[in-house]
């Protein structure tokens, strides 16, 4: 018992230190600490469901359609189209119930690399949850992949499904009915298996983008649980950053504004 109590105290102290540092840096930046430069859009998520064995997560296994908010962002951010860890956040609205927030970052597709962030110049490519999830006894990763069906049919260039090299090009692509993204799930070593599609809609204004906040731990769909040290770090950094910039929880579980 004394050892357990000491472990909890150490963990609590570490969490407090992380949250204080995050809050201080957020106030210094006058905005988001993580992925401060981004563009937000209306959107729609269509879930086809899984044709294979069920994962036990209804959002993945059961067909559905959701209004969504989509945000593409740069992590540091680096200038212009310099390499950066790029981010994609998707909020599935379920008013009046709390939303589901799915966050993925630029990564490699291979199983041995899907848990590592990968800086990129372009917003095309694989986005992985980086952290793993638990669904019962299963360990799962989520991803957003380029949708080959959204490529320009008159172009032989596979990058015609590319949202762009920078945030301005991403916005222009959305206004021009740009590429959609495929949602996929995989085990730690298995292939990506598609289960849905994200369609990017109308750009939101800068004020709506600044007010939007995501909770990648508290707003997960039932049956999916974040696991591991990255989940612990995300929980405390995102919470402290939201508090420091005044993004309060609203009714139905939505953070800041419901857009």
Summary of the model, kept short:
The chain is an alpha+beta fold and 259 residues long. The chain is 24% helix and 29% strand. It has an eight-stranded antiparallel beta barrel with strand order 1-2-3-4-5-7-8-9.
Description of the molecule:
This protein has 259 residues and is of the alpha+beta class. It has a single domain (36-225), classed as Catalase HpII,  Chain A, domain 1. The protein is built from five helices and ten strands. It has helices at 2-29, 58-61, 167-175, 206-211, 229-244, and strands spanning 37-47, 64-74, 86-94, 97-106, 127-128, 133-135, 138-146, 181-187, 193-203, 225-226. An eight-stranded antiparallel β-barrel has the order 1-2-3-4-5-7-8-9. Strand 6 and strand 7 (138-146) form a beta hairpin. Helix 1 (2-29) packs across helix 5 (229-244). 36% of the residues are buried. The model is unreliable at 153-160 and 249-259 (pLDDT under 50).
Give the radius of gyration: 18 Å
The biggest beta sheet is recorded as: 8 strands, antiparallel, barrel
CATH homologous superfamily title: Catalase core domain
Instruction: Tell me what the CATH architecture is.
Output: Beta Barrel
CATH class: Mainly Beta
Order of helices and strands: HEHEEEEEEHEEHEH
Labels describing this entry:
29% strand; disordered C terminus; alpha+beta; Catalase HpII,  Chain A, domain 1; 259 residues; 5 helices; 24% helix; eight-stranded antiparallel barrel
List the helices and strands and how they pair.
Elements: H1 2-29, E1 37-47, H2 58-61, E2 64-74, E3 86-94, E4 97-106, E5 127-128, E6 133-135, E7 138-146, H3 167-175, E8 181-187, E9 193-203, H4 206-211, E10 225-226, H5 229-244
Antiparallel strand pairs: 1-2, 1-9, 2-3, 3-4, 4-5, 5-7, 6-7, 6-10, 7-8, 8-9
Helix pairs in contact: 1-5
């Amino acid at each position: 018992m004394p050892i357990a109590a000491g472990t909890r105290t150490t963990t609590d102290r570490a969490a407090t230190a992380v949250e204080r540092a995050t809050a201080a840096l957020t106030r210094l930046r006058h905005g988001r600490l993580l992925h401060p430069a981004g563009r937000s859009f209306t959107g729609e998520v269509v879930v086809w469901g899984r044709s294979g064995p069920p994962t036990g997560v209804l959002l993945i296994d059961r067909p559905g359609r959701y209004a969504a908010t989509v945000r593409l962002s740069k992590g540091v951010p680096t200038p212009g189209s310099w390499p950066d860890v790029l981010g994609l956040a998707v909020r599935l609205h379920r008013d009046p119930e709390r939303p589901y927030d799915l966050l993925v970052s630029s990564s490699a597709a291979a199983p041995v690399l899907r848990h590592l962030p990968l800086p990129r110049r372009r917003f095309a490519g694989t986005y992985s949850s980086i952290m793993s999830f638990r669904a019962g006894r299963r360990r799962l990763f989520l991803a957003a992949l380029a949708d080959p069906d959204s490529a320009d049919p008159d172009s032989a260039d596979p990058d015609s499904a590319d949202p762009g090299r920078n945030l301005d090009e991403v916005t222009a692509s959305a206004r021009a009915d740009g590429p959609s993204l495929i949602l996929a799930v995989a085990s730690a070593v298995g292939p990506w298996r598609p289960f849905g599609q994200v369609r990017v809609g109308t750009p939101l204004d800068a004020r709506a983008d600044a007010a939007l906040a995501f909770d990648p731990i508290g707003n997960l769909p039932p049956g999916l649980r974040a696991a591991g040290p990255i989940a612990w770090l995300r929980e405390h950094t995102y919470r402290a950053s939201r508090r420091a910039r005044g993004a309060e929880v609203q009714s139905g579980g939505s953070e800041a504004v419901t857009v």
